[in-house]
TrEMBL record:
<dbReference type="GO" id="GO:0016985">
    <property type="term" value="F:mannan endo-1,4-beta-mannosidase activity"/>
</dbReference>
<feature type="domain" description="CBM6">
    <location>
        <begin position="29"/>
        <end position="147"/>
    </location>
</feature>
<dbReference type="InterPro" id="IPR005084">
    <property type="entry name" value="CBM6"/>
</dbReference>
<protein>
    <submittedName>
        <fullName>Glycosyl hydrolase family 26-domain-containing protein</fullName>
    </submittedName>
</protein>
<keyword id="KW-0326">Glycosidase</keyword>
<feature type="signal peptide">
    <location>
        <begin position="1"/>
        <end position="20"/>
    </location>
</feature>
<comment type="similarity">
    <text>Belongs to the glycosyl hydrolase 26 family.</text>
</comment>
<dbReference type="InterPro" id="IPR008979">
    <property type="entry name" value="Galactose-bd-like_sf"/>
</dbReference>
<feature type="active site" description="Nucleophile">
    <location>
        <position position="410"/>
    </location>
</feature>
<keyword id="KW-0378">Hydrolase</keyword>
<feature type="active site" description="Proton donor">
    <location>
        <position position="320"/>
    </location>
</feature>
<dbReference type="GO" id="GO:0030246">
    <property type="term" value="F:carbohydrate binding"/>
</dbReference>
<dbReference type="GO" id="GO:0006080">
    <property type="term" value="P:substituted mannan metabolic process"/>
</dbReference>
<feature type="domain" description="GH26">
    <location>
        <begin position="168"/>
        <end position="462"/>
    </location>
</feature>
<dbReference type="InterPro" id="IPR000805">
    <property type="entry name" value="Glyco_hydro_26"/>
</dbReference>
<dbReference type="InterPro" id="IPR017853">
    <property type="entry name" value="GH"/>
</dbReference>
<dbReference type="InterPro" id="IPR022790">
    <property type="entry name" value="GH26_dom"/>
</dbReference>
């Protein structure tokens, strides 16, 4: 659900990856697409600049693919590069290793053959298969290149939160998070009810529970009254020793269409409102600006209840902004970033909310609101197969310059810990979405969930009961 925007970022990410991980060309192995097994795709030669005897195109239906056969003398981690031409615009492809975890790779628009990072692949000893499958389709593949991965360098995470007035609770939590980063992953679940479902299923309770402030949005309260228990649920989990993350599907302050296709309760979607964040921010004396601030103040009231209850909050506002499907991201990066700064300033400096640890939730460089207002960078990743999501992890390490902790704030499928370790994908936490994901075997089978929740690398509620003591010892 995340989107890279533009060639510039692709090149920047690649350049940074190359800087961090020197590549010895002699160790790289090239596999020409035209020599692989093709299904629904074809060998072409009209686009100049290809390597070998041609390239592969014709990705126009969902099952179209290229299957590479890759031998490896041992079980080993490799960096994957894909040479492609994006002459039909920004596209995405799916990479599937050994019929297992799938990875989504962005192929930004180009006029010529160009190389993009496909993340990392863990090859087994013997024969491996790597498939490049349609996804959005309409791109040209020249070859893939694999290079043994360099060992990840030590992280260099900031020692302080961005808010100089951060509360002792927030500082303690941050110190604890830093102490486990790269060593363990916190298990997490959206909604207290589904966290309890996980406990029944696996025998282990998630360390982290995420709650959604959606139903405190004033434009929803106007329709249904005060129905939310999100704050109470967060406090319940905190009181049993757990960690709390908060997001907010912010129902637009005004301009809801409230039609059968786009009812009032879908008012956080771009398609369900004419609320224009760019126009609103351009007119600070306008009525829409007034209701925008009214909404922030209403949410501040709920966050203050958490502060008063001693709950430090991993606060993730304006999530998935770069996707554009929510109104706060609908007008591009500039108004989304401006709104984030307004939120930061008003919650911190007007409302004195010092219990917040600020979690940014987009991958793209040009959407990043700045080091001075972000404690943790994160992404929402929906890919089946319980993979390590190493592409997004590595992008976020680059985005935060390896000074920001990195979290998988929403996932469809919980990652397998052995793969996280093998890929050195040091996500601080994973948090599985609720209905139709955690309780859906296509995304998370009970057997895999039980394996994950009982793994040494995965911290569960019973294993983090001393987080305050550990955190306080580092202050
Ligand atoms: Ca080729």
């Amino acid at each position: 659900m995340t989107r890279l925007t533009g060639l510039l970022y692709g090149l920047a990410a690649l350049a940074s990856l190359t800087t961090a991980k020197p590549v010895c060309r002699d160790e790289s192995t090239k596999f020409e697409a035209e020599d692989a097994v093709l299904s629904g795709t074809e060998i072409l030669t009209t686009q100049s600049g290809f390597s070998g005897t041609g390239y592969v195109g014709g990705f126009d239906t969902s099952t179209d693919k290229i299957t590479f056969t890759i031998p490896s003398s041992s079980t080993k981690l490799y960096d994957l590069s894909i040479r492609y031409a994006g002459i039909y615009g920004d596209k995405k492809t799916t990479v599937i290793l050994n019929s297992g975890a799938s990875t989504e790779v962005s192929l930004p628009s180009t006029d010529f053959f160009s190389t993009v990072s496909g993340g990392q692949i863990l090859l087994n000893e013997g024969t491996n298969t790597l498939e490049i499958v349609n996804n959005w389709g309409w791109y040209l593949i020249d070859y893939i290149l694999i290079t043994p991965s360099a060992k990840r360098e030590a992280h260099n995470i900031n020692t302080s939160l961005v808010n100089p007035a951060a509360s002792t609770e927030a500082k303690t939590l941050y110190a604890y998070l830093r102490s486990i980063y790269g060593k363990k992953i916190l298990s997490g679940q959206q909604d207290l009810s589904y966290a309890n479902y996980v406990a029944t299923l696996t025998g282990k309770t998630p360390a982290l529970v995420a709650s959604d402030l959606i139903d405190y949005s004033p434009s929803r309260v106007a329709y249904q009254g005060n129905v939310s228990q999100a704050v109470e649920e967060a406090i319940t989990h905190h009181q049993r020793g757990g960690l709390v993350s908060i997001l907010w599907h912010w129902n637009a302050p005004a301009g809801l269409y409230d039609t059968s296709e786009n009812p009032w309760w879908s008012g956080f979607y771009t398609r369900a409102t004419d609320f224009d964040i760019a126009a609103t921010l351009a007119d600070p004396t306008g009525a829409n600006y007034t209701v925008l601030i009214r909404d922030i103040d209403a949410i501040a009231y709920q966050l203050k209840r958490l502060q008063n209850a001693g709950v430090p909050v991993l606060w993730r506002p304006l999530h998935e902004a770069e996707g554009g499907w929510f109104w706060w991201g609908a007008k591009g990066a500039a108004p989304a970033k401006a709104l984030y700064h307004i939120l930061y300033d008003r919650l911190t400096n007007v409302h004195g909310l010092n219990n917040l640890i600020w979690v940014w939730n987009s991958v793209a460089q040009d959407w990043y609101p700045g080091d001075e207002v972000v404690d943790i960078v994160s992404a929402d990743v929906y890919a089946q197969g319980n993979g390590p999501m190493s592409v997004q992890y590595n992008e976020l390490v680059v985005l935060g310059n390896d000074k920001k902790l990195v979290a998988a704030a929403e996932v469809g499928a919980a990652p397998k810990p052995d793969l996280l370790v093998a890929y050195e994908a040091h996500w601080l936490w994973f948090c599985v979405w609720g209905d139709s994901f955690i309780n859906n075997a296509e995304w998370n089978s009970p057997a895999v969930l039980t394996e994950i929740y009982n793994h040494d690398y995965v911290l569960t509620l019973d294993e983090i009961q001393d987080w305050k003591t550990i955190g306080a010892a580092q202050l």
